[in-house]
Design a protein that fits this description.
Layout: E1 2-8, E2 11-17, E3 20-22, E4 44-47, E5 61-65, H1 69-81, E6 84-88, E7 95-97, H2 107-115, H3 119-128, H4 131-137, H5 151-167, H6 171-176, E8 189-191, H7 197-200, E9 206-209, E10 213-216, E11 220-223, E12 228-230, E13 233-236, H8 259-263, E14 282-284, H9 296-317, E15 322-324, H10 326-340, H11 369-377, E16 384-386
Parallel strand pairs: 3-14, 4-13, 5-6, 5-13, 6-9, 7-8
Antiparallel strand pairs: 1-2, 10-11, 11-12, 15-16
């Protein structure tokens, strides 16, 4: 029996449950850097995940700190609205052009969803096929290129470089916007080729700062070159606490052991991304090492199905608890660790949220989509302890 203490709008309350499935994800708790002087800023500031409703930026000077995927996709829209936009970029990202990316689906697509049998299923099956991603991101030790990990990865880089150079005529700016890490060693960004980040940084009302933030003061931000950038609003596009799964919850299993004590210094781990020894009748959706392998929605659905099949097996066998055994848990994570070292996100040049610990990534799933689908669709009950 799980005892669950929660804080809600009406205060704290306690409930009980025979089983728990968490769905808190890992890109949910904002990561706000501890920058000198941040508390002195007299304007407004917020993280991208905490955007105030109805905010009008039309007469505002806006500063954006951070240029990951969120920053790159948000900055073009802010540049159209703000009076002036200052972008603080530490690391440029690879950008893939996808025609029509920001355009609505044509009405014919919705008509097909309503009238063509299995059209939605076909579309979902197409999006779930990520075999190309495995090929794109697997390191080929025989491939000799300082900028790419294999031939397909180089082709993807060439596409990105061409798009960048077609968009940016200034060679110096193009150099600044060209990443030093291989494609997909950090999160790549999809944009509409008609208008995106490269257009935004060339606008007259946009200033790109690459020297870094020295400090924040009452009027705005001073960069590392000592130049002051006044701002009315500071937006933190600084990502999330990706490795802090379940944070700030405290989860205690058998004998009072916390998940942190189970994980130790290597960080979060789970069997099939959702079970941990010592935590019976407990599953996590978007848990450790479930980013990649399958599409996010497909992964969530398959783990839900996996949990339901485990619960079903308990009913059929007259048991009341199920948890993964320690040995399969260890072996599964050792497999992930070996394979993740063969993928491009282990490249040391990348500054990413994938590799969140010195010894392993708690985020990425390196398994092919068919393998992880099989693991979750067909639970190996010999790996589980039922009582």
């Amino acid at each position: 029996m799980w005892i669950i203490t929660m804080d809600g709008p009406d205060g704290r309350y306690v409930t009980r449950s025979n089983a728990v499935i968490t769905a808190v994800g890992f890109l949910s708790r904002p990561n706000i850097p501890d920058l000198p002087g941040a508390s002195q800023f007299e304007g407004l500031s917020w993280h991208t995940a905490r955007w105030p409703q109805g905010m009008d930026l039309s007469d505002k000077r806006v500063a954006v700190i951070g240029t990951g995927c969120t920053g790159y996709q948000m900055i073009p829209e802010l540049a159209l609205e703000a009076a002036h936009l200052t972008v603080f970029q530490r690391t440029p990202q690879w950008v893939f052009p996808v025609p029509g990316y920001t355009s609505p689906f044509p009405p014919q697509i919705s008509w097909l969803d309503r009238n063509l049998p299995f059209h939605t299923n076909f579309m979902r099956a197409q999006s779930a096929n990520t075999a190309w991603f495995t090929k794109l991101t697997t390191i080929d030790p025989e491939f000799d290129d300082p900028h790419a990990c294999n031939a397909m990865n180089k082709m993807a880089r060439d596409v990105c470089v061409k798009f960048l150079n077609d968009k940016i005529a200034d060679p110096e700016l193009a150099k600044i916007m060209t990443p030093k890490h291989p494609v997909w060693s950090a999160r790549a960004v999809v944009v509409d080729p008609q208008y995106g980040i490269f257009d935004a940084v060339q606008r007259d009302n946009t200033t790109l700062v690459t020297s870094g933030v020295k400090q924040i003061n009452a009027r705005g931000i001073e960069d590392q070159d000592g130049i002051q950038h006044d701002a009315d609003i500071i937006v933190y596009a600084t990502g999330f606490r990706a490795a802090d799964y379940f944070y700030p919850m405290e989860i205690r299993g058998r004998g009072g052991m916390t998940v942190g004590e189970l994980w130790g210094p290597d960080g979060p781990k789970a069997y099939r991304g959702c079970m941990m020894p010592g935590f019976p009748n407990f599953w996590s959706i978007y848990g450790p090492n479930t980013n990649g392998g399958l599409g996010a929605a497909a992964f969530h659905e398959m783990i839900t199905l996996f949990a339901m099949k485990c619960i079903e097996q308990m009913f059929l066998t007259g048991k009341t608890t199920v948890e993964v055994k320690k040995e399969p848990y260890v072996e599964y994570n050792e497999l992930l660790d070996r394979l993740n070292l063969q993928r491009v996100w282990s490249d040391k040049r990348a500054d990413n949220y994938y590799w969140t610990h010195s010894t392993r990534t708690a985020v990425q799933c390196p398994l092919p989509n068919t393998q992880i689908w099989s693991y979750l669709n067909h639970p190996q009950f010999e790996h589980l302890e039922m009582q």
